[in-house]
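= Protein in question =
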Amino acid sequence: MTQSLVGGLQPPYYTAVFTSIRPDDPEGYAETAAKLNALVEDIPGFLGHEAARTPGGIGITVAYFRDLDGLTAWQHHPDHMAAKRYGREHWYESYRVHIGKVERTYGFDREDRENHEDRQGRQNPEMPHDRDVVDDRD
C-alpha cells in the first residue's frame, strides 16, 4: 500500500481510479502487483500512484498520467492485459475503472504549513502557489 501521497502535479492530467473487491492476499497477487508497479514506471507520462485497501474487501488504486496517450499505453501493455485477465479469473469478485481529467488540484501537508503561510494567512512569496489552490483551513 502507498505510504505517501502523490503531490506537486500541475493540471491538467489524467487519473485511472481502479476500485475492486477481492480477498486479502490471494495467491500470486503481491508478486504480480510488484511487477506491474515496476513496469508502469517506464510508461511515458506516468506520474505516480496511490493505493489503499480495507481488511477483507474494498481496494482503491489511483494512477496518475500526464496525458491519455500514457494512460492508453498502460491499458494496452501486454503484461498489464495478462494480469487483468488473470485477475478476473482468480482474484476479483468485482472491479470498476473510472477515467478522469483533473482540472484542479490542492492539498495540505502539516509539515509544510508553517513554511507556506505567515501568521496572517498570506502565502509565503518564496513558496510556489497556484491561483486554483483553495484555502481549506476551515
